[in-house]
Each structure stands twice: as C-alpha cells, then as structure tokens.
Amino acid sequence: MRTSIRLALAAPLLSLLAACGGDAAANANPYERGLDQAKAGDHAAAVASYDEALADLEPGAGTYMEIQMARIESLTHTDAPKAAIDFLEVADENSELVKPEDFMRVFNWFVQVKDWGQGGKIADTFGTAYPENEELAQRMDTRIQEAIDAGEVSAAQLEMLEGLGYVSTQ
C-alpha cells in the first residue's frame, strides 16, 4: 500500500517538474535562452545562443536588430574589441535599421564595463556618421573626458583615445 501511495504522489510531481523546466529550458528559443543566460551572467553562452538565433534571420527581419543588440551587449562583457567591431559592421551594413540611440546604448555598455577605448571608437564613429546630432556626440565626448580626468582610463585605453583625438600629446 505504501508503494502505491508513493507512486500516486510521484507521478504528479514528475509531471510538474517536466512542465517547469527539465529539457524545456534547454530547447527554448535560442534568443530567449540567450536572454536568460545573459541575465544569469553567462555572457559567453548568451553570445552563442544569439548567434544560433541569428543564423536563420535576414537582416531586415523583425527581431534581427533586437537580437544583434543583445548579442553585442553580451560581447561587451566577454570580448569588448569584438563587440565594437561587430556593432560597427552591423551599423555599416544595416544603416537603415540602426538609429543614433543604438550608438548611445552601445557606448553606455562600454561605460558599464569601463572600456573607454572601445567606447571612444563608438563615439568617434557616431560623430562621423551623425554630424547633425551634436548633442548626443557631446554627451559621449563629455563622459569620456570625465573618465580621463577621474583617472578611470587604463594606459592602453588612453593610448587608443589619444589615437582618436580625445587626448592631447602635449
């Protein structure tokens, strides 16, 4: 009798576990899986999931830019130079989909990870691509200068910023 009670209790529990996760999480939509991985701090896995989600999408597809931006945000945590290169390539190849605000979002991600050199690349390209948007360009430039003045910039990043014209060699 005890065995039949255990079996009676075990069946609903197993069904509940299967419905709440189990293999369902592993088979989730790759974009959603990437979001969950990024939220958990596993940015390398998130990038892989976003790459999987992008594999079958055309650049003009509805979620293409959303997935690309999520991928680039995770890349800022794992490979900042690649994140900058990839964003600038996406922006160049999809100029009709990329907005000035996207540059600001990417710049802010570099600010969060304190990679001022890559942030400077984004700001410099933004200033060239959107000369009419002086206010946003000035906000980026000001934030970079504040970081330099506060000593938040590493020597290597300072060298990059110098090459972009943010630092005088005098």
Lay out the secondary structure.
Layout: H1 2-20, H2 23-26, H3 30-39, H4 43-54, H5 64-78, H6 80-93, H7 100-112, H8 116-129, H9 134-149, H10 155-163
Helix pairs in contact: 3-4, 3-5, 4-5, 5-6, 5-7, 6-8, 7-8, 8-9, 8-10
Short description:
The chain is mostly helical. The protein has helices at 2-20, 23-26, 30-39, 43-54, 64-78, 80-93, 100-112, 116-129, 134-149, 155-163.
What do you see in this structure?
The structure is a single chain. The chain has helices spanning 2-20, 23-26, 30-39, 43-54, 64-78, 80-93, 100-112, 116-129, 134-149, 155-163. The chain is an all-alpha fold and 170 residues long. The chain is built from ten helices and no strands. Residues 1-23 have low confidence and may be disordered. The protein folds into two domains: 25-70, no CATH class; 79-170.
Task: Write a concise keyword list for the protein shown above.
170 residues, mainly alpha, 2 domains, 74% helix, disordered N terminus
Going by helix content, strand content and strand pairing, the class is mainly alpha
The tally of helices reads: 10
Q: If you compute it from the alpha carbons, what radius of gyration comes out, rounded to the nearest whole angstrom?
A: 22 Å
Q: Helix coverage percent of residues?
A: over 70%
Principal-axes geometry comes out as globular
Number of extended strands: 0
Strand content: under 5%
Distance between the termini: 89 Å
Q: Number of domains in the coordinates?
A: 2
- Average pLDDT: 84
Regions with pLDDT < 50 over 5+ consecutive residues? 1-23
One letter per element, helices H and strands E, the order comes to HHHHHHHHHH
Largest sheet: none
Signal peptide: 1-24
Protein name: Tetratricopeptide repeat protein
Organism: Rohdeia mirabilis
Keywords: Signal
